[in-house]
Structure formats: structure tokens, C-alpha cells
Amino acid sequence: MNETTTDIDPFKSVRRGLLELAVLTTLSRGRLYAAEIRERLDGTPFATQEGTLYPLLGKLRRDGLLDHVWEESESGPPRKYHGLTDHGTQRREELGRYWQELATTLETLGAPR
Amino acid sequence: MKRVTIVNLAGTAFNLEDDGVAAVDAWLADARLRLAQDPDREEILHDFERAIAERCATFAPGDRDVVTGEQVTGILEALGTVEPASDLASSDVADGFPRPAASEADTPLRDRRLYRLTGDEAMLAGVCSGLAAYLRVDVTVVRVAAVVLTFVTSGALLIGYVIMAIVVPEADSPDKRAAVRGYGETAQEMMRRAREGAGPAFQSLGSLIRNAWKLIARGLHWIAMSIFWVVATIWALQLTWLFINGGGIESAFDPGTSTWLIALWVTCIAWLFAATALACTKIFGAASGDLQRTSRRARDITLGTVGSVLTVLAVLGTFAIPASASRQLSSLEDGSSRIELYGEDLCVTLGRDDDVFSSECRSGDHRVDID
Q1: pLDDT at residue B336 tops 80
Q2: Is B163 part of a structural domain of the chain?
Q3: Would A52 be classed as within a structural domain?
Q4: Same structural domain, B102 and B123
Q5: What is the pLDDT of residue B342?
Q6: Residue A110: exposed, middle, or buried by beta-carbon count in 10 A (0-12, 13-18, 19+)?
Q7: For B187-246, where are the alpha helices, taking DSSP H only?
Q8: Range of the domain at A76
Q9: What is the model's pLDDT at position B61?
Q10: Could you list the residue range(s) of the whole structural domain that residue B344 is in?
Q11: Tens digits of per-residue pLDDT, B347-371?
Q12: Residue A35 maps to a domain
């Protein structure tokens, strides 16, 4: 099962590894609730379903990268608005820089000496 | 037409079609298993419930709007399969995340174990229902087989039943009840079994027999009820008659029998019928489904026991009293040569002017009339 999926989409594991950075990035400009994060990711290579997103948000909160505040919603139950903690902002910048570094490295690896 | 259930999703009530409710249950049960190792499991499950509620709200904004089963399926598909965050970190897992080991421990593949299924499922000690669950056969089939085999074996199976009732342990916890069948009683399991179809092939036959029996039992219950009240009324009338006007019923008895003995005898006879009718009322009432709650079952057992004891007493009384009454040398009517003798092993010789008549009663309640 794992092999066939890998055959179909060889980049899945790459995206998966970067999903954390993607989620942190969506929150860089302010608090969002889970459905809004999902909407931001929709249509990008990082499109994610709640089934994956919620446990990830839980893990990021446990790691101290995110926190949340409750806000009443006009329709339905109150919503959890997630936001970056200082540690989260720091981590996002680190990861972003690291990703840049990796990209640059990949470019320079193929460059003529 | 579909049934609708009102469910509480994250504090808001929604009208969901029943298959939708089952689907949400199954999805959440599945999520619970997949998140077995997640420390935030409960919170994430609440988040999921809120997400489902929010999407339901878009389909059914009003109080009277109904979310259909298809819509629920759509919602659950949009939420996707739950993937624990720990799996995202490990690079070797691409998709179709295997369940974490802890969730396997939650639902071990249990071997079936034989227990007695007591409570509502049981008729007597729960041996048949336990056996049926263990063998995955409809319980009615087992019961019918047990009754037939009891007759075939001239009652030997009854002894087996009693032994099993004593030896086989009772399933007194949900875990044990599940172990009889070999599966857990989670929503997910139930969904899976529901999808698999109607269960054992005996199901339809079993329910057919059960429904027929229910109908018959209802009729017998009604008849037993009627008999009970008629007998009780007659009994009351007889006793009243006996005490007001001592001569009425006495004429049916041997002359000289004491009024108290007659009263006792009538009482016993009345009890014989009344207790039998009462027992039938309880048995058939329970079988027809009128009395199904556990508290009532306990009361039925008590009444049934009392009824049985009284029946036995009544039967004994019926035989004992007339026998003792008949031992009394009853009457000798002056002025005539008619002598009535009652009793066992009497030897009587009677003489008259014109001829001599001799008679012997060797045994039993023979009656000798000499005119």
C-alpha cells in the first residue's frame, strides 16, 4: 500500500515533511481557525483534510508553537482561533530559512564548478 | 422514509438521519482508535465534533432541517481519514497510516468464550442465549432445539441444562458479553457487522418462529388471565356460599365431612386452578413481550415460585383431604337398612331378618350399599 501510493505521488513525503512549516506560515499574519487554515491550504500542494490537520495542530500546540483562543461563532459552536506563540514565530523563521538553505543547496549542487 | 435522530454535536442539536448518526459514530470511533497514542486525543475528538457540527449547520441552518445520510457521508469524506501527527514526522509512512500499536491493544482479537448471557436476553439462566451467541446462531433455533432434544432424551437434557447453568460463568461485564460473541461492542464493530448483512442464515427463520410464538403467547396470556379471574371469582363466591349457607357444597361431599375440611378442599382446588392460571399469565405474559423489563422479570420469578409452591400444596391437599375424610365411618341412617361405609381395608358383615348379606371391602374407597 505504501509503495503504490509512493508510486502515484513520489513527492507526498516531501510535502508531508513541510506541512508543519506550511501551517505555521498560514498563521504568520494573524489568528485563524482550523477551517480557515484548511481553506488557505486548499488548492496549494499542501491541501489537507481536517483528519490530518487537527492532530497536527494538537502536536504543534503541545510543542509550544501554537496557542488558541475561543471565539463565539455566529452560526454553530464556538471556534478555536489558532495563533503562533513567540516560539512558533521563531520556529517558522528557522524552518523558512532552513528551507531556503536547502533550496539554495540543491541549486548549487548542480551548478558547474 | 427515513428515521431521524436528534444528536448533540459539540453542544448544538442537529437532526440527523439514522444512517448518518451511525456513520458519525463509526467515524469518531475510528478516529479514537487512530489517535490512541495522541495525548490530546479527547480534545482533538471534540474538535472533530465541532467541525462536523459546523458543516451540519451549513446543510441544516434551521431547527427543523434534517441532515441526510448522504450529506453526512460527504462531510466525513471531506474530513478525511485521521492521521496522527506523530506519523507525519516519520518519513517511512506515505499513506494509509497503519494503526498504532496501542490501538491494537484496545481491540484485541478476542477468542470467543462461553458465558451465560443473563438479563433481558435470557429466558431462564441464559444458557441458550450464551450458547447461541457463542455459536453465532439465532437464539430461537437453540431454544427450539433444546426443547425438542429434551423430549427426545426423555428429559436428560434438562440435567445438562442445570449443570451448564451452574458451571458456565455469567457474563456480568460488557467485556464478557462481548467476549461471548468474540467482538467488541464499539460503534465501528456494529457498523461493520451491519454492512456485512443480516448475520446468520437462521435469522429470518428465527424471527419468524419468535413472532409466531409471540402471537400464540399473547393469546395464551389472555386466556390465562381470563381463567385466573373467573376462578378467583368462583372461589370467592364458593367460600362465601359455604360460610353463609353451610349446606350448599356439603351435599357434594361425603356426609359427615366437616365444614372446615370442605372449605379447605374447595380452597385447594381453587388454588390449583388459580395458581396454574397465574403462572401461565406470567410465563406467557413475559413471552408475549408485555413484561420485558428486568425489574418485572424479578417479580415474575417471585410470583412464579409462589404460584408453583401453592400449586404443589393444592395438589397434595386435593388428594389428602378426601382420603382422610373418607376414613370416618360416616353415617348410619336410622329406620332403614341403608349403611354407608367408607374407608380402606374394611371388613364388614351385616345381617338382616330375611337374609344374611355379607360383604367385604378389601381395599380402596369401595362403597357398599345394602337396601
Answers
A1: no
A2: yes
A3: yes
A4: no
A5: 47
A6: exposed
A7: 187-196, 203-244
A8: 23-105
A9: 79
A10: 329-371
A11: 444 444 444 444 444 444 445 544 4
A12: yes
HSE at residue B191, side-chain half, CA atoms within 13 A, is 16
Same-domain status, B35 and B66? yes
Q: By mean pLDDT, which of B27-31, B79-83, B168-172, B302-306 is the weakest?
A: B302-306
Task: For residue B14, give how far its alpha carbon lies from the nearest alpha carbon of chain A (Å).
Answer: 10
> What is the CATH number for A28?
1.10.10.10
Q: Is the pLDDT assigned to residue B156 strictly greater than 80?
A: no
| Among A50, A75, A80, the residue to mutate for chain B (most B Cβ within 10 A) | A50
Instruction: Judge: A56–B91 Cβ closer than 8 Å, yes or no.
Output: no
A12 within domain boundaries: no
What pLDDT is recorded for position A82?
Answer: 92
B320 and B226 within one domain: yes
Tally of structural domains, chain B: 4
CA angle B255, B259, B263 (to 5 degrees): 120
User: What residues of B are in contact with residue A23 (Cβ under 8 Å)?
Assistant: none
Point out the domain boundary residue: B135, B167, B201. Answer: B201
Residue A59: its chain B contacts at CB < 8 A? 38, 40, 85-86, 88
Give chain A's domain count: 1
B147 and B102, same structural domain?
A: no
In a domain, A95, yes or no: yes
Check if B365 contacts A (Cβ < 8 Å).
no
Question: Which residue from B91, B21, B69 is spatially nearest to B49, judged by alpha carbons?
Answer: B21
- B151 to each of B157, B245, B287, how far by Cα in Å? 8, 49, 21
Residue B132: predicted pLDDT: 84
* B77-89 confidence digits (pLDDT tens): 888 888 887 665 5
Cβ distance A51 to B81 less than 8 Å, yes or no, reads yes
B90 pLDDT higher than 60: no
**Residue of B190, B154, B242, B238 whose CA lies nearest to B29:** B190
Closest CA to B330 of B346, B317, B314: B346
Q: What is the mean pLDDT of each run of 10 residues along chain A (113 residues)?
A: 52 83 90 89 88 90 89 78 91 91 87 71
Chain A nearest CA to B3, separation (Å): 24
